[in-house]
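Problem: given the chain below (258 residues), write out its structure.
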Amino acid sequence: MKLEGKVAAITGGTRGIGRGIAELFLAEGAKVVINGRTPEKGVQALEEMHAGADAYFIAGDVRRQADVEAFVEGTISHFGRIDILVNNAGGSSGFAPVAELSDEAWNEALNWMLNATFWGTRRALKNMIPRRWGRIINISSVEGKQANKTSVAHYITNKHAIHGLTKAVAFENGELGITCNAICPGAVETDLMTNTGPAAAEALGMTYEQYIQDYAQDAAIKRLNTVQEIAAMALLVASEVGGGITGALLDVNGGTAL
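Solution.
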């Protein structure tokens, strides 16, 4: 029970990586609050996790500052504090080369990834700092370590920026018992991937199946990563024994990073 007595808040926690982290944290004794845009999916997720009073759902869209702050505040209101924040939700749309990338796609990506991570982290720190303990985990991407794909510059840029924010938060709060790390997964076939992947693949001039296969072939393990592999790393840095890890950009991408 590595997280017994801890309270964790996870954005985008109804499906995919966020859901996997939520389930593992619950199994390790944490109380968990998950976020998502669709109340129906939130209710379904809670029912499927069979967590009872140890899990709670707050609806909201992380692309909106008020919703992110309300999520953190709602966690504190419901369980009394926030010990662990997982900034998991994020994505992009409107895939195109930089010369053709729209303002709408750029600004949506900025809010969906970097700003959402900043808004949530800032609010959570206000609760963590007085108690001198906290864990902030940013779910980034292998694309935050390289730039070798076309038509996803807005995604790549924001993931790189999240790494800078991760290091800055770690530096400012290390003496306060608060760590901040970024996990950099390779491709994981989540709901978000199946929803946005076909458009990204089309922008690259390939089918979705080719797109997925390319990610697998780029990896040393010759397959996609799994949700469980990402969750295992999140558990490590969330735990007491992970307290010496901070400001780190942690690869869980099967050897994909260049």
